[in-house]
Structure to design on (508 residues):
């Protein structure tokens, strides 16, 4: 018995050391934490329960039979974040460069299987050199097994990927299929083919950072959601983020006690909208003054800034917020904004998170670039997402809601539950000047000016829409939080089902 205990302790010590002190020091020198240090920061103290610590690879080729390290390059298990169960895997770059082997993949698959069985989020910490070349097709098969589990888990449990080192080739597709991706600046990257291959094939010279760094993916490509300065910042953000998420699609959204009164009035909102209709204002201000304690977790803040997406709380319970941002492109919807918001709305719907939509949209962005790159199909994604969503939907039109963009932004016609408007709301096919110039083409400037004033008097207000029942109530801006809170209370037991289908055919 004592021999077995001694063996156990020796194996455990070996697993804890990973690739050895030299490689750990190298990891630290790059400004990166080790796999276990990351788990320690991510999870509640002493809550981590490891599984498969003693797993080793089964490869005998290319001298691998002489190299066995317990754990095989990934630390897996479960723990808690603020007392709530989560599953986690953390790739260990000090062990074979974090490369994925058949056994390594099996460990990740087991975590995903266990998480789905019990209904708990999975957080994957990626730091890997890719497929373990010595294993050949077995490692590729391992990747495909992980991909399959990611797909089956999608919409069942929240999946969060933290990219904290290299992630290249086939390895990028697992994070890409998860719900959200956080990256670390200057130490993480994602690409299908690296700079060397790019140079060989296309003769382009590009750095790793330019090709697939955190800034690239959070600004240009939208592959990642948020970029952080270092490992610790990203891990602490993940803790905050998971706090907004339900444990699974079978659970209600979490509730956190708050001292912020549900009926708090914000008088400053009454003067937020400028007198000049073409002058912007910051929609973040409306969001911060609406949610509990001004706490708002924005996703993709550096991409498609003309629409804001993120999570807040009302009366302690999570809500998803989608809002046009007049400060960027006047709040117009374009391709990037449509894709960003569509995916966010579908995520909220999958996990029973109510959606609050703040609308100030003059229309879709015009131009050949938008049309030739498929704004019709991409704009339809957002329309589709809102139309199929069955969660509580509350919409507030703050100023402009013009044309097709009015329809798209959670209008009453797309099964909006409660549609409110501020007194400053204008709901029309287009702006007064453009409309009059079409209707009264060929009239004198004086007549045009007269008709414009007439059009504005008729449509530059929310009352025509309210008369038709498209707006449920015209509310004072200062009462926005109160009305949203009351609305969410009313809609708590909402039941709505879409017709049975295997799945929909959203225009991708």
């Amino acid at each position: 018995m004592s021999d077995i205990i001694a063996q156990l302790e020796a194996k455990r010590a070996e697993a804890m050391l990973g690739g050895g002190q030299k490689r750990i020091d190298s990891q630290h020198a790059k400004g990166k934490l080790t796999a276990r240090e990351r788990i320690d920061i991510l999870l509640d103290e002493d809550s981590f329960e490891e599984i498969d610590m003693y797993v080793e690879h089964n490869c005998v080729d290319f001298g691998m039979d002489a190299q066995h390290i317990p754990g095989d390059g990934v630390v897996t298990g479960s723990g808690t974040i603020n007392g709530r169960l989560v599953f986690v895997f953390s790739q260990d770059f000090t062990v074979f460069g974090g490369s994925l082997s058949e056994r390594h993949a099996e460990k990740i698959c087991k975590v995903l299987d266990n998480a789905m069985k019990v209904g708990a989020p999975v957080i994957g910490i990626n730091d890997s050199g890719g497929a373990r070349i010595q294993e050949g097709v077995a490692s590729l098969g391992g990747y495909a097994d992980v991909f399959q589990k990611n797909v089956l888990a999608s919409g069942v449990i929240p999946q969060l990927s933290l990219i904290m080192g290299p992630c290249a080739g086939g390895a990028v597709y697992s994070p890409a299929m998860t719900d959200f991706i956080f990256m670390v600046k200057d130490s993480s990257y994602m690409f299908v083919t690296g700079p060397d291959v790019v140079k060989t094939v296309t003769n382009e010279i590009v750095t790793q950072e330019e090709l697939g760094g955190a800034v690239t993916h959070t600004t240009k490509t939208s592959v990642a959601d948020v970029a952080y300065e270092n490992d610790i910042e990203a891990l602490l953000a993940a803790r905050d983020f998971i706090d907004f998420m339900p444990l699974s699609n079978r659970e209600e959204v979490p509730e956190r006690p708050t001292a912020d009164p549900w009926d708090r009035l914000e008088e400053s909102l009454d003067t937020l909208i400028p007198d000049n209709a073409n002058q912007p204002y910051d929609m973040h201000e409306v969001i911060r003054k609406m949610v509990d304690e001004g706490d708002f977790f924005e996703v993709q803040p550096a991409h498609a800034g003309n629409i804001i997406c993120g999570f807040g709380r009302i009366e302690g319970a999570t809500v998803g917020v989608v809002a046009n941002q007049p400060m960027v492109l006047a709040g117009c919807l374009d391709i990037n904004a449509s894709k960003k918001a569509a995916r966010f709305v579908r995520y909220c719907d999958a996990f029973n998170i109510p959606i609050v939509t703040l609308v100030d949209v003059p229309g879709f962005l015009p131009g050949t670039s938008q049309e030739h790159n498929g704004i019709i199909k991409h704009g339809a994604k957002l329309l589709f997402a809102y139309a199929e969503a069955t969660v509580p939907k509350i919409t507030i039109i703050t100023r402009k809601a013009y044309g097709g963009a009015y329809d798209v932004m959670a209008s009453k016609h797309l099964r909006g539950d409660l549609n409110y408007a501020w007194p400053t709301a204008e709901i029309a096919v287009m702006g007064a000047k453009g409309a009059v110039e079409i209707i009264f083409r060929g009239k004198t400037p004086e007549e045009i000016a007269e008709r414009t004033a007439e059009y504005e008097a008729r449509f530059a207000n929310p009352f025509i829409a309210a008369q038709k029942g498209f707006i449920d109530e015209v509310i004072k801006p200062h009462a926005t939080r109160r009305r949203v809170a009351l609305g969410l209370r009313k809609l708590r037991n909402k039941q709505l089902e879409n017709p049975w289908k295997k799945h929909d055919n959203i225009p991708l």
User: Anything to note?
Assistant: The chain has three domains: 2-242, 267-425+461-490, 431-459. Residues 102-118 form the longest helix (17 residues). The longest strand covers residues 393-402.
